[in-house]
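If your schedule permits, I should be very grateful for your opinion on a structural question. The matter concerns a single protein, recorded as an amino acid sequence and a row of backbone structure tokens. Could you please explain, in whatever detail you think fit, how the structure tokens follow from the sequence? I set the record out below, with my sincere thanks for your time.

——
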Amino acid sequence: MSNSLVSIVIPFYNNEKTILEAVKSVFSQTYMNWELILLNDGSKDNSLEIVQKINDPRVKIVSDGINRGLVYRLNQSPSLVKGDYIVRLDADDLMHPDRIAKQMSVFESNKDIDLVDAGTYSITELGEPDGLRGIQSINYNPKSIVSSAMLLHASIIGKKEWFENNKYDPDYIRAEDYELWIRTYQHSKFARIKEPLYIVREGKINVKNYIKGIRTVQKILRRYGPSILSKRELYFQLILAEMKIIIYSIFNVFNLQDFLSKKRNKPLTLEEKAELSLVLNKIRNIVLPN
């Protein structure tokens, strides 16, 4: 089993309600050789004060007091870490205790792999088990890649060197991962563990941000689509994106937008729900050093 140092980076901005659970999921890992970089993006709430109480030599807090946005922080991350591998984790999410161990085993078995993602459980805003997605194989069909993100962004672990050589493009905020996969998949090697090792918290959808994301997707389609799609296919994808904006806007009027977001998840069986509940309880019972 690999024992390489991995660097878990959690960028955070006003996450005082969730960041401790995210950190607890780091301390729950069966993979022991890690460092944790808590990267404050100019939070205005008590997030920074909360994490400053954690007393562990493996935990480093970086804070410049400025709100620069996620893309800037993602590109900053390689310069802050000591490990050869970077683990993504959002400040309102959690990870299964076996996540790092299982994803690192993929790198151990194939040295050519650049990024490994995993399936994900979803939980509600209140932290209750909800759904499952991302357990199908990665689709390498160019037409599929240009019409949907091929990797589950928050669940990836990647080589530090890869991130240094493949920066996120700030012109594609809210779809920066989607653009990055399209730009890099032909000269990169991606892998997936088809089981839920990541736990994403899905609360109320901010429709304004969702619309911004769709506009960025249309921008990506216009840049990369002409070399992959026919004119008719490209026009269809652009219209489809426009229809999503209309549908989400209508559902937002009736406060039903969350119904649409749930459609991307597979409902959990009673067994899956019980298993996830046990994992969540294990994480929440972790006592952080202070």
